[in-house]
Amino acid sequence: MFSKSLLVSGLALAVLGFSAWLRTQPNRVELADATVAGRADAKVIGGALAPPIIGARLWRLTAPDPRFGGVSGLAVDGRDLIALTDSGAVVRFAPPVAANQPILFHFHDLPDGPGRVHRKAWRDSESLLRDPGGRGWWVGFETRHSLWLFDPGFSRALGHRLLSAGWRRNRGAEALVAAPGGQIFALPEAGGPALGPGGTRGPPAPRGSADAARLPDGRLALLVRRIGATGFVSEVRISGLAGRPALRLRLPLGALANAEAIAAAPRADGGTRLWIATDDNFKPWMRTYLLALDLAEGV
Predict the structure, then answer these.
(1) Mode of pairing for the β-strands spanning 34-42 and 272-278
(2) Do residues 275 and 95 touch, judged by C-beta distance below 8 A?
(3) Average pLDDT score over residue span 65-83
(4) What local confidence, expressed as pLDDT, does residue 251 receive?
(5) Cβ distance 125 to 141 under 8 Å?
(6) What is the rounded CA–CA span in Å between residue 145 and residue 142?
(7) pLDDT at residue 293 above 80?
């Protein structure tokens, strides 16, 4: 006789497997820029939060635009968040502050990228990084593993660099980080050495690396997720610095919450806010969540 917990675990794994099987959409359609009214609706966070987390809020984001979903990259730009989807769209919006509120989402398709524009797999944009030199934004693509530099408004491509790493089709530049000297490295989702343009290798990334962000003090926050017995398990790993130990923060997200994007911003009280977004894989049984985690000053 099967227990209820085993049944729930089996159903969760079946849904995740089916989702992965259907993940790649064969085609994409370029659409005009649009500003769309959507919503941010508060959700209950399960489980107790432990120090150094001093606050957390969770919203489900929705918008009536076919490009909304598949969030794989996230960045803070002034007062806005920029979300990058894995079908080549950039979505700009002001982060929510209330429990439930309307949100204006500004949609813009990337003007260039590897491969044919109508092949979703060839415009699989997975990672986003502000250029250390101030020229604009770097976008990392999977399948056709490459890094593309776009101007600050994502209106044109300024150049691109191939990544010859022998990575599997769907295990490429899942995260982008900049070293202190400005060198850019792509972190592979399957784990292994980080790779820079021209074949430069950096420190190894753990298996399941989904995204990365620099904290205001320069430490690296790495978003790592894996599939456990009951679904997705996600955590943020923060590197140590000047006597402060490295940290691992388990994320209070559900079994079907596929955490893929992270950004960081300073708080007025001296702490740090981590923004984390989930990828719904454009599937009706998954959701686009936005999680705000507040870390205490000096953590």
Answers:
(1) unpaired
(2) yes
(3) 97
(4) 93
(5) yes
(6) 5
(7) yes
Cβ proximity of 141 and 110 under 8 Å: no
What is the rounded CA–CA span in Å between residue 11 and residue 266?
40
Distance CA 210, CA 206 (A): 10
Nearest to 125 by CA among 140, 103, 138: 140
- DSSP-derived 3-state class of residue 260: strand
Q: Are 182 and 173 in contact (CB under 8 A)?
A: no
pTM of structure:
0.90
d(CA 149, CA 153): 11
Q: What is the 3-state secondary structure (H, E, C) of 174-189?
A: EEEEECCCCCEEEEEC
Confidence of residue 199 (pLDDT cuts 50, 70, 90): confident
As given in the structure block, the two tokens for residue 251 are 């994320």
Helices (H), the chain: 4-21
3-state secondary structure of 10: helix
Domain ranges of the chain: 4-137+208-295
Q: 56: helix, coil or strand?
A: strand
Q: End-to-end alpha-carbon separation of the chain, Å?
A: 48
Bridge-based pairing of strands 137-141 and 125-130 is antiparallel
